[in-house]
Amino acid sequence: MRAPNFNDPPCMPGSGKSAEQLLELAGPLAGTPGAMYVERRGIPLHIAEEAGVRFAPDFGGRPAVIVAMRDRHGITALVHGRYLRTARGQNKMLTIGAGGGMVSVLDGWHAEPLIIVEGLFDALSMAACGWSCAATVGRWASWLPDVAQGRTVWLAFDSARAADAEAERYRERLRGASLLRLRPPGRSKDWNTALAKQGIPSLARWLRQTLNSGNRIAT
Question: Is 103-218 assigned to CATH 3.40.1360.10?
Fold first, then answer.
């Protein structure tokens, strides 16, 4: 599969700290600017905390909310950070580690059906609506075909053309699974935008009706 060429550093530039060390140094979200950030994006604080989201006041020089990306055995492979503020020319995100991990919320990739989304806040938005999922953050986990074998997999990527191209790449590699394409409803570009527009009850109802029926209008 031809995937985006991410050049994630194995350790934090400058400090040399590993993904595990960065997670250990981060603190709980409650009472921090990170809590205000996730709540401003419509995510209940307890959902983010249950997903393992933590607050790092200095993640490569800026405050960020961070989360582990784990391999199939639950071992931290990377740590992914989303910055609370960005200035012109600055990256919105930074990912540190060797690769081969995904962000899991609730039961993650163990849940049926297996729902795969792109970003951290897509995953948190799904979780706020009661759905387990795993987020790629644009990376590829080589163990995914094994755990997806024989299962129903919803490719719940964003609405952009690039996301459709990504879904096609996943179709090439997950041939042993029954694949369905799920786009955010309406004109929403991603799941967090859909959450902000519709609210949790409305989006949760739409997801329940669509996913439980296997509605192929989204394929």
Answer: yes
Q: List, for residues 13-27, the tens digit of each pLDDT value.
A: 999 999 999 999 999
Phi, psi of 199 (to 5 degrees): 85, 160
Compute the distance between CA of residue 71 and CA of residue 143 in angstroms, rounded to an integer. Answer: 8
Over residues 154-188, the pLDDT tens digits come to 999 999 888 999 999 999 999 999 999 999 998 89
In this structure, what DSSP letter does residue 132 have? -
Nearest 10 degrees: Cα torsion 100, 66, 126, 110: 40
Fold annotation for 19-97: DNA primase DNAg catalytic core, N-terminal domain (3.90.980)
Please count the residues of the chain.
Answer: 219
Alpha-carbon distance of 148 to 135, in angstroms, equals 14
Burial of 53 (0-12, 13-18, 19+ CB in 10 A): buried
